[in-house]
Amino acid sequence: MTHSTAIRHLDVSLLPPDNLRLQNLCGPLDENLRQIEAAFDISISRRGEHCRISGELAQTRLGSLALTHFYALATEALPLETVQLDLVELARKGKESALERNVDLHTRKHGLHGRTPNQVNYLQQIQAHDITFGVGPAGTGKTYLAVAAAVDAFERELVSKIVLVRPAVEAGERLGFLPGDLAQKVDPYLRPLYDALYELMGFEKVSKLFEKQCIEIAPLAYMRGRTLSNAFIILDEAQNTTPEQMKMFLTRVGIGSKAVITGDVTQVDLPRGHRSGLIEARQILLGVRGLAFVDFNASDVVRHPLVARIVEAYEQHGHIKR
Predict the structure, then answer these.
(1) 198: which of 75, 272, 283, 307 is 20 to 30 A away, CA to CA?
(2) Cα angle: 198, vertex 201, 204; to 5 degrees
(3) Which DSSP letter does residue 194 get?
């Protein structure tokens, strides 16, 4: 538990007293209480229906909310999966109330934060969820802010590595055989991610982290069978994944990891007749708890003003064709 701020104690009584509900609340060997402690970085001591929560003030309040929430549900046994998913939702709501202001990120570029409401929401969702989808046109900051959030998590030691993933699909033209080792072959596809890393961390530091394998390139085609734990994983240009690749990628996420999937569904470069994994994932996963979808539009474009007009023109043309 962190001791960077004063530790507070909050006493909670679970009423009406009911031994069966208390047993269901605590779970086998108090596993449910351990889940609550880990989720909010608190400690819980219990005597009967009386609990004492210790930790930072905001976290103890979230712990109290979690205890009363689960006690109300504890008329029957609480599956561990239900406890974990509900804790994600409670943590998200707590962070949303604490993050009504903008999110400032810890990078070399001081004062970096979202410039539009959707960008602010995007950063909040990344912090609140383990898997976040950012979908929208070019220039809206999807990739750049995802890299910034990854750098922030790494600098705060919330993760031990940053993993960059991108499908090797060319945008409408064939580049032919690319010389070099695996990293050099996929280098052209990852250039936008590199550019953001260099700006947010500095060239020398990024180079050293590559040498230490704290920043890793993981071509999508070579990820099968891996489990990425304690990592911040970014899948860029996800509209160019197949449904099979997207499912494979999402099932690589391990304990302590965050994944951000970015893409523009209007710029699919897959061969004709191939369905985009990003489009299908949205249809399949939209109702799944514990992950978030954030949509960007032309008003979020932060490049040259003409870019927003170009995006709007293409969107209108697409509506007319449909």
Answers:
(1) 307
(2) 70
(3) H
Q: What is the mean pLDDT of the chain?
A: 84
Name the nearest CA neighbour of 276 among 308, 314, 247. Answer: 247
C-alpha 131/C-alpha 225 separation (Å) is 19
Per DSSP, the three-state class of 177 is coil
Beta bridge partners of 165: 235
DSSP string, 202-230: -HHHHHHHHHTTSEEE--GGG-TT--B-S
Q: Tokens in use for 269?
A: 């470069």
Phi, psi of 171 (to 5 degrees): -85, 75
DSSP string covering 6-25:
--EEEEEE-SS--HHHHHHH
The neighbouring-strand residues paired with 259 are 131, 233
User: Whole-model pTM?
Assistant: 0.65
Please name the residue that has the structure tokens 């990739």.
Answer: 143
Report the run of H or E that residue 262 belongs to, with start and end. strand 258-263
Count of other CB atoms within 10 angstroms of residue 85: 14
pLDDT exceeds 80 at position 187: no
* Residue pair 122/294 in contact by the 8 Å Cβ criterion: yes
Q: At what angle do helices 191-201 and 142-155 cross, to 10 degrees?
A: 50
CA-CA distance, 13 to 34, in Å (whole number)?
18
Q: How far is it, in rounded angstroms, from Cα 165 to Cα 119?
A: 22
Q: Look up residue 23 and give its two tokens.
A: 């047993």
Nearest to 136 by CA among 320, 311, 317: 311
Residue 287 to residue 304: CA distance in whole angstroms: 36
Cis previous bond, 16, omega within 30: yes
> Tens of pLDDT along 69-120?
999 999 999 998 889 888 988 877 766 555 444 567 888 887 787 888 889 8
